[in-house]
Amino acid sequence: MGKDQSEMSKFVRSTTSKYKFGAHISGAGGISNSVTNAYKVGCNAFAMFLKSPRKWVSPAYSKDEIEKFKENCKKCNYNPLTDVLPHGQYFINLANPDEEKAQKAYDSFIDDLSRCEQLGIGLYNLHPGSSLKGDHESQLKQLASYLNKAIKETKFVKVVLENMAGTGNLIGSNLKDLKYVIDLIEDKDRIGVCVDTCHTFAAGYDIGTKEAYEKFWKQFDEIIGYQYLKGIHLNDSKAPLGANRDLHEVLGEGFLGLEVFRLISHDEHLQGLPIILETPQPTDEGYGDEVNLLEWLETVSIPEDEELTKKSKELQEKGSKSRKDQIAKYDAKQKKGTKRSKPDSNNDIAAHLSKQKKVSKKE
To answer: 3-362 architecture in CATH?
Structure first.
């Protein structure tokens, strides 16, 4: 009901959901296949890699493949400017203090952005990288410099920086890192942020209850601003709160549980954004089941709902062994004296933000 009927699959795409629920989809055999693969599992938005995530250099798209991608988007009713959020290669690190390696990363990055514009895609998701052994603030400035350069060399694609799960030298586990970089971007219309639920939780920002969820988004708005929110990655977390481990889990089976995803399915701030599943599914069909779950959660108005309670219990039982194993690993790490960094521990970034607020008040 309220869905486009499709002979291609058991999954059908919702025409009534207020949210663009989708998933990271395979583009094997040609980038145009990502469109039809997304449609087959009922996605209202989707992500994919623009080229092999395991190679620095990949063959250019053929003219025919570019046209086929655009035709498939029209046929399946996806707007590539707003409904597609491709993921950059994981090994791109524009903050690398090694100049030669940073330049190699930039070459791959600008190639990705060019591919987006060839396909008419308006958003591009990027892990912001790591400062490694360099000075953290200096490497944030370098990252922003490369972003400014790339924006000038391209026409319209918006770079969407993802928040991260780790701490220390990894950029973006502290929201203030992302704010610092955004402040240095010359064309603010070409920069945005993607919030990953697993990364958020792993970095120490609790979002598992209504109160905690609302507190996080209040922080996000105060530090970064809702105007920069351009996408969501939906993942439960195999690891506990603040474990600083990027371990995605199937919705409901991890430490977050179903309630946060019910809250997301009722959050008006997220309407119109690509909301992308990256859970560990063996095939794209598994994403179809999770898209259906999210669209069902959209109809569940209270956390005490009987069917929701039953579903939550089933999923938590399914993931119980994995959670116990991760708790044991986390406890062992704590005993060895590994301290968990707090999200607001970077004093240099905090000082920068304080300065920015003073400048704003003067203006």
So the answer is: Alpha-Beta Barrel (3.20)
From 64, 71, 90, 325, active-site residue:
90
Helix/strand/coil for 172: coil
Tokens of 225: 């601003």
What's the pLDDT score for residue 362? Answer: 38
For residue 232, the cross-strand partners are 195, 275
Cα within 13 Å of Cα(77), Cβ side = 9
Average pLDDT over residues 142-171: 96
**What is d(CA 235, CA 227) in angstroms, rounded to the nearest whole number?**
23
Q: Is 266 a catalytic residue?
A: no
Structure tokens belonging to residue 334: 């704590």
Token code pair at residue 244: 């600083």
The C-alpha angle with vertex 222 and arms to 130 and 208, in degrees rounded to 5, equals 75
Is residue 268 part of the annotated active site? The answer reads no
Determine the pLDDT at residue 335: 86
Cα 288 from chain centroid? 18
Annotated catalytic, 269? no
- CB of 93 within 8 A of CB of 102? yes
* pLDDT reported for residue 361: 40
Whether residue 248 lies in the annotated active site = yes
d(Cα 187, Cα 149) in Å, to the nearest integer?
Answer: 11
Residue 249's φ and ψ, nearest 5 degrees, are -135, 155
Instruction: Give residue 311's identity as a one-letter amino acid code.
Output: K
**Locate tokens 């990363």: which residue?**
105
Which residue out of 136, 190, 199, 323 is catalytically annotated?
Answer: 199
Query: Which of 126, 135, 47, 50 is CA-nearest to residue 91?
Result: 126
Site of tokens 């008006």: 268
Strand-pair category, 229-234 with 274-277: parallel
The model's pTM is 0.91
- Choose, from 13, 24, 233, 262, the residue flagged as catalytic: 233
Does the annotation mark 246 as catalytic?
A: yes
pLDDT band at 344 (very low <50, low <70, confident <90, very high): low
Q: Are 78 and 42 in contact (CB under 8 A)?
A: no
196 is catalytic: yes
In the annotation, is 304 catalytic?
no
